[in-house]
Amino acid sequence: MPDELIKSSKRLLEPNERVSEVLFGLIMVLTFTGSLSVAEAGREDVRTMLIGALGCNLAWGIIDGLLYLMGCVSEQARGIRAWRALRNATHPGEAHRVIGNALPPMVAAAVGPEESESIRQKLLQLPEPPSRPRLGKDEWLGALAVALWVIVTCFPVAIPFLFMQDVPRAMRVSNAIAVVLLFLAGWAFGRIAQYRPWLSGLAMVVLGSALVALTMALGG
Hints:
By secondary structure, the protein is mostly helical. The protein has one domain (about 1-215). About 80% of the residues lie in helices and about 0% in strands. It has helices at about 1-5, 15-35, 45-85, 90-100, 105-110, 115-125, 135-165, 165-190, 195-215. Helix 7 (about 135-165) runs antiparallel to helix 8 (about 165-190). The radius of gyration is 23 Å and the shape is elongated.
């Protein structure tokens, strides 16, 4: 029971994380496809670009997966610290403050002293919390999902270069796919944030394009 209570509350991949991973993955691959000279590029240049884009997204996917695991460990550690602080509280008021700090602000505002005391009494009846955070199957699957999501994102943009010999045409198709994916990512973010999806989609296209241009200008 204690292990279940301090487990990371993250799902395998939160909706807002899906949007972020799509944006990161697209920016990575677009910095490679955008650096390709359509006037001079040959098949060897395209091959080098594809290997670089895939390798970069693979590396970033691994890094992002590790960051996800670090976030899970940090979240569990906060839960363990809060639990210990509650059990070591010298009076109920101190324990109530610990409970309030552990709850989301909107929930904490609706929880009064009686509810906090009821929560405190129930938590005190539970066994000792674990001594340290533990990464279970769900956390490792979440990290794998994050890594795969970043890696897979590059394929739709890269596919035209695999099947089209005409580099300028492949570039146009690739850019069109990237714009569509950016718009869909913005649309999804707008729905999650309960903001206007169309406006969010257009803003994501502009933001993604600006970030790609800035990355390329800085030599990324």
